[in-house]
Amino acid sequence: MSSKEVFDSDKQYVMNTYARQPLVLVRGEGIWVWDDQGKQYLDFVSGIAVNGLGHCHPRVVEAIREQAGVLMHTSNLYCTQLQPKLAKMLVESSAFDKVFFCNSGAEANEAAIKIARKYGKQKSPDKVEIITALLSFHGRTMGAITATGQEKYQKWFAPLVPGFKYVPYNDIEALEEAINENTCAVILEPVQGESGVHPATVEYLRFARTACDSDDALLIFDEIQTGLGRTGNLFAYEYYGVVPDIMTLAKTLGGGFPIGACLTRGEATNILQPGDHASTFGGNPLASAAAIAALSAIKKDGLVENAKVMGDYLQKELRKLPVEEVRGLGLMIGIQLNNPTAKAIGAACTENGLLVNPIGDSIIRLLPPLIVTNEDIDQAVEILKNAIQAAG
Ligand SMILES: Cc1ncc(COP(=O)(O)O)c(C=O)c1O
Predict the structure, then answer these.
(1) Which residue from 60, 207, 314, 353 could staple onto 255, CB 3.0 to 4.6 Å apart?
(2) Looking at the domain that runs over 3-53+302-391, which CATH code has it been given?
(3) First-to-last CA distance in the chain?
(4) Best residue for ligand 1 mutational test, from 141, 197, 224 (most atoms within 8 Å of Cβ)
(5) Which residues are CB-contacts of 162 (< 8 A; sequence separation ≥ 6)?
């Protein structure tokens, strides 16, 4: 099939929900991805933080191959050997006690929202309010778009889920004003990703913890993008020294295979009981095998440390470019441009063999895999520098 035939067929048969880049990708290995013309690209998007281990990590590929021939799916009516094994690995790697598995980030947040609602309702019928931040992103299901503090994602889909309040991010006073005894949860991303990479301040997250404790509300961190090494910590909450009651994960968790997770600790842990929540596919043997391999590889290969060292190096090199601001944590980086040239820069980078993620008119987001090297970074920064200079 020629590229044109692929684009035509995509247009004819696939629902028009994505503004596609003009590329047909056919193969990936490590940090590299190839299009159908045989051209190779340094992938600094990583499937929007999914391919944290790079493309087709050998241990993940091997685990999927092997498990696919043994047992792919049962039902959560039955125990399998791999789901509790993965849950144990996650619990032992974090501050959490138990895990609910699902298939995506939005679903992990739905689980968190339901836990929060039941937690509140058990205390008082009015304790159902959930506070979330403006410019956040939590996914596309109805609960998750309601939690997402961006009107552009909500406007066609009202009525939304009732009981949500929005506050400006990093604004301690606004959170103090909004939270009260009727709040059952506060949901925050430690670094807002989708709106252009905005890290929380340490004071803000510490205040959120204290405020939740005083009003007996659950603190939920959406670590779907920040989790599993992306920020140079296994989880971003470690960097902030603030432990939430619930943490949601997806993206890098399956090393490219779809799986999501909602982790709880303390009182949040035994809220859901049989019949309250479920997922047909959640944590099935194939997904669990992929995630066990991915998590083991992150640890064995020292990828969290690499993300920290390479994140510092990449940010240092980017700060030499003529841009307004470089912000981020580890390998989750937003470049605020001087001019509204993000799309032109994105296109020029693609042309020169580098995938980046333009956000709006003036931001470029970089999410290279955790395996990135100094050499990859030097090559990417050179391409970006030329693209920024050419865009003026
Ligand atoms: C912070 C955050 N939460 C939730 C989601 C939604 O995840 P999914 O697309 O897997 O539902 C995303 C996806 O980009 C995200 O970045």
Answers:
(1) 60
(2) 3.90.1150.10
(3) 38
(4) 224
(5) none
The answer, as to whether pTM is greater than 0.90, is yes
Question: Does residue 189's CB lie within 6 angstroms of at least one atom of ligand 1?
Answer: yes
What gap in Å lies between CA 251 and CA 235, rounded to an integer? 13
* 250 in contact with ligand 1, CB cutoff 6 A: yes
pLDDT at 43: 98
- Domain locations in the chain as residue ranges: 3-53+302-391, 59-300
Q: Is there an atom of ligand 1 within 6 Å of 70 CB? A: no
Residue whose Cα lies nearest atom 3 of ligand 1: it is 138
pLDDT along the chain (392 residues), means of 10: 96 97 97 98 98 98 98 97 98 98 98 98 98 98 98 97 98 98 98 97 98 98 98 98 99 98 98 98 98 98 98 98 98 97 98 97 98 98 97 86
Domain 59-300 has CATH 3.30.43.10: no
- C-alpha to C-alpha distance for 234 and 52, rounded to whole angstroms: 12
Tell me, what amino acid is at 234? L
Distance 250 CA to ligand 1 centre (A): 8
Looking at residue 392, its pLDDT comes to 80
